[in-house]
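Sample 1 of the test manifest.
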Amino acid sequence: DIQMTQSPSSLSASVGDRVTITCRASQSISSYLNWYQQKPGKAPKLLIYAASSFQSGVPSRFSGSGSGTDFTLTISSLQPEDFATYYCQQSYDTPWTFGQGTKVEI
Amino acid sequence: QVQLQESGPGLVKPSQTLSLTCTVSGDSISSASYYWSWIRQPAGKGLEWIGRVYTSGSTNYNPSLKDRVTISIDASKNQFSLKLSSVTAADTAVYYCARGGGPGFGYWGQGTLVTVSS
């Protein structure tokens, strides 16, 4: 299985901050990396697919980058509605696997 | 607008089989070339992909669950289903159905909590 490791596991930030979350794969996954946002009691929501492509309707303050084994999700200016848990997921090979999550707190 | 909705028992006894159905609306499960997946999330923990079924009916399962999992598709009802046998308390989780593939899971059901307990 391909292991996905996110860092940090949690972070505290303020509205307006620039936030960066990293995700590392245990082997190269090309650009088959997706990012999700999950709020309590809700299903995850796809933000970024193929490492850097925006899902329809996602605010432009979210961006993704990387390829191979190292990837980054950046929120350029944190908004109140962005406090949530973020997951990366590889779709390079089955079993598809997720990172352990990064909780963004106030 | 594509919508997915999970249904099934919320309580399953240990050693029995967990059965869930995902009903798809706004899209034909047989005409679109997508993977239809089940994903679960124990309380307070991360996401685990269980397996997927393609529109052709072909399947792939997570090896960690492979011997216990069956995912099938019923095109006539626009549904796909999950069966997980020999459940234990470790299978207690919120179970999600989702549509997606390489470009990620773009559509999810709301999730259904399944508790394994006697």
